Amino acid sequence: MVPNQEKxxxxxxxxxxxxxxxxxxxxxxxxxxxxxxxxxEIGITDAVRPVLCLQEDVxxxxxxxxxxxxxxxxxxxxxxxxGFANGxxxxxxxxxxxxxxxxxxxxxxxxxxxxxxxxxxxxxxxSDLARAVSHWCGEARSASHLGELGAAAAALAKxxxxxxxxxxxxxxxxxxxxxxxxxxxxxxxQVAPExxxxxxxxxxxxxxxxxxxxxxxxxxxxxxxAGRVAARTGAVxxxxxxxxxxxxRGEGRxxxxxxxYEFEIGVKxxxxxxxxxFVGSGLxxxxxxxxxxxxxxxxxxxxxxxxxxxDEDLETALRALAEASGAxxxxxxxxxxxxxxxxxxxxxxxxxxxLCSLLPENAILVDEAATNGPPIYAxxxxxxxxxxxxxxxxxxxxxxPPMALGAAIACPDRKVVLLQADxxxxxxxxxxxxxxxxxxxxxxxxxxxxAYAILGLELARxxxxxxxxxxxxxxxxxKPTLGWVEIATGLGxxxxxxxxxxxxxxxxxxxxxxKGPQLIECQVSTPKEWFALEEHVHRTR
Amino acid sequence: MVPNQEKxxxxxxxxxxxxxxxxxxxxxxxxxxxxxxxxxEIGITDAVRPVLCLQEDVxxxxxxxxxxxxxxxxxxxxxxxxGFANGxxxxxxxxxxxxxxxxxxxxxxxxxxxxxxxxxxxxxxxSDLARAVSHWCGEARSASHLGELGAAAAALAKxxxxxxxxxxxxxxxxxxxxxxxxxxxxxxxQVAPExxxxxxxxxxxxxxxxxxxxxxxxxxxxxxxAGRVAARTGAVxxxxxxxxxxxxRGEGRxxxxxxxYEFEIGVKxxxxxxxxxFVGSGLxxxxxxxxxxxxxxxxxxxxxxxxxxxDEDLETALRALAEASGAxxxxxxxxxxxxxxxxxxxxxxxxxxxLCSLLPENAILVDEAATNGPPIYAxxxxxxxxxxxxxxxxxxxxxxPPMALGAAIACPDRKVVLLQADxxxxxxxxxxxxxxxxxxxxxxxxxxxxAYAILGLELARxxxxxxxxxxxxxxxxxKPTLGWVEIATGLGxxxxxxxxxxxxxxxxxxxxxxKGPQLIECQVSTPKEWFALEEHVHRTR
Lengths: 541, 541
Hints:
Two copies of one chain form a homodimer. By secondary structure, chain A is an alpha/beta fold. The first copy, chain A, has three domains: 9-173, Rossmann fold; 193-324, 3-Layer(aba) Sandwich (Rossmann fold), CATH 3.40.50.1220; 348-539, 3-Layer(aba) Sandwich (Rossmann fold). The first copy, chain A, has helices at residues 11-21, 36-44, 56-70, 80-86, 88-96, 126-133, 143-157, 169-173, 193-203, 220-233, 263-270, 314-324, 348-358, 373-379, 400-410, 422-425, 431-438, 453-462, 469-472, 484-490, 501-512, 528-539; strands at 26-29, 49-52, 75-79, 101-107, 136-139, 162-168, 209-213, 236-239, 246-249, 257-258, 275-279, 303-308, 363-368, 386-389, 416-421, 442-448, 495-498, 518-523. In chain A, α14 (373-379) links the parallel β13 (363-368) and β14 (386-389). The longest helix of chain A has 15 residues, at 56-70. Chain A starts with 10 loop residues before the first helix and ends with a helix. At the A-B interface, α2, α4, α5, α6 and α8 of A face α2, α4, α5, α6 and α8 of B.
């Protein structure tokens, strides 16, 4: 047999080399027949760690979590149109977060697609799906083209883009040229000095100002500069509702408050502001339009200025803004707030109290707690320094478990804590198996309220009569109640059920002392304020 | 308060009325904010039974199972682009099976989409996704249009089409006209007499002939006519690889053999045939193209004639074909084959033997057994009369659990038996919860071989060296092993694990005596022939 190195390269090898040359070291995969040549390439080399996931939203959600923490892409391996479709929701969350991701979707040989085998769509092609949800999509026309697409996708992904390569099998097995040299990054575009000057002007005009940060403005030196600007000008640091990438918070970080998700709460929160300056964040639009309601959460007449988009160089821009504002002093930093162990009823607030007390320094906190999230967020303000991830950037739910998996793979030396609502968690429960397999160091806290609680509020906006049992049956998860301990056990993750705040505290403390995934099932009610709000929106609909 | 009937109708009411007027009585749902007005309409009336599912592939896969058994559509309720995307795989299986389905996808208010709230895609719209995988897609331009789309979709769906309605929330709440009267069905197009004459001519030319049936040709009078033709002409009754809709089989039905899925086995199976006549089935194309292999399973030179497509009136066509062939006699019918209880090792064949012995008359057998399917199919040839459903019509896996759920909802008085491979079953494991909730009368037999076994074969086609541990790690489900009993218990379904053929037989018999879902976890090896084939394809690659 002729040794491999003397044989010409095939397309799969060219693609694989292009990704490895670009520095990619991790692949989240749910492969099928059309990806076998890449499975082989991954298998015969040491360059890439494959992580098998049992459903594709786990694959793509893990790539999102990985990319957010690493600041660099993993690649995914997905099987034809339906395998890609199964992962679209989390591709979309990643795209709306500007997370670096490279997706590789195998398809049937290009010459066979017109024969209409089973996987071909009745009215479209894989690339129709891929293009709609990716920043960039390339479909290989030849084996050599596959390597070119790999190099282009990896380079573009690094700038915070989701790039999808559609790879017909004949392009895998045909002979190919080696991939081109990875293009050097052109860097992010700079924010125009005029925009910075205008923002600086606004910050000194005496009006009540919010500086709304998003994406990379929420971490590192960018955040510190923003903190200096706030300290100097009196502006309040806000964040986009679902911080994209991650938000550095806790002890020693400039405190930032995300604009609340829920419409009426968000409107109230922004009411005091006369002007808002956006740095890496979009405008505060309502997630949903409601009949006869405005679509912006900011008050009428509030001056909105988008100084910089998430695509631009936010750190340099914020440094310049600090300079233009004369903000040379130290920013106000969040002090550590002491928290004693909670007692009594197990509530979201009690869980937050435990986290504030015990969350280790440099932990990664993933929040898909839904209606139970805000009390925990509030209670952990003064916890030790940690990074906060929110998967819901594209509105799609179920991102929590895969995001925690991906973050743990990206940062094996950091403890990941996942706050997981039960309804959302069920979309991607398969992620627990990959956590067990990979010994991912994740503590999963399931906040079990046996309902899609958020929808009770949304129904209250449109119903003319009281909610009846039949309506409730479409929002309720209690019949039968979900046994998370049993489900986790079946998926290989050790799990316990706790009933009181004390039990939770004890269990969480014990979990911190161990490595590998552990699940704690917490029966918690939907916070009372939520039902009060439900009444309010129903009355004022 | 003014009573409802004096108020003008809104768009949600017009849409709901259009679906109810068309006879739709069941809704599989995973609603979100943009579907709340339909949740309300379903809730205040008795017309429609809502079935909540915890992930969207369960919603759409259940609608596929329901539509196949009912011959009429249910409607689905899905939330925005990502909720629809989560269900695309099973929408696609349904579309490739020509199952009647109406999907309703809520979206943000049309006037709010350009504001780019979270759910908007970075590079496309809901309808881009919906159009690619549906036979028909309509997006409402107004509230009245919503009712018009409902009437059109329901009528078209009945002819075996997947129809998707994209419904912006402002079209739900705006005032609307009542929906138009449901259009009367125009019936299916008739097969041209010339085509029937040509098929009849082929059937009498003395060549070895296969009559390949698909879709509605596999049931009822159509199948009986085909059986008469076979008895008269000596043609062999074959079926498309994954029978769309369902296949009536067992005692008293004309026996039909589907063309095997696996390429080499399929080629061997079709080798004897000099001509194939297709009635409601596509040509026998390989599911995947392989390097230097043909893309058709039929032998070179075999005469292929597509007499009728799945869209046409197959029953009338087969009646005419029987007449043209002088096939007035009785068809050869499958006799009941006695089967004694199996003993010893728990294998797929042993499970088939139990089913042959115990499967009750009129049962519904859903087959997503993957590599363990063929031995069970072979062993149940002479079981009592039953209907056979195969979800993999579009190649997407995970259809088994939702299809069994949907079939059980459609046919509450029939026992449903699901043969479920472990890898596929994990994609849509959430279906178990809906089965528990709805008391669906399903026996779930999990065929647990701890692997995506089919992929070992596919890897063997492309690998140049032996499979190593790293490659295996991308195909293997054994680390950790999946605890189906625990998972099912957590989802509310009683479950047991059996280790021998005797235990399985006993457990299955007991399950037949009870109502409601029950799961039996069976540790079975991948059949030995499969590994022999793996060796063969590797050698001849």
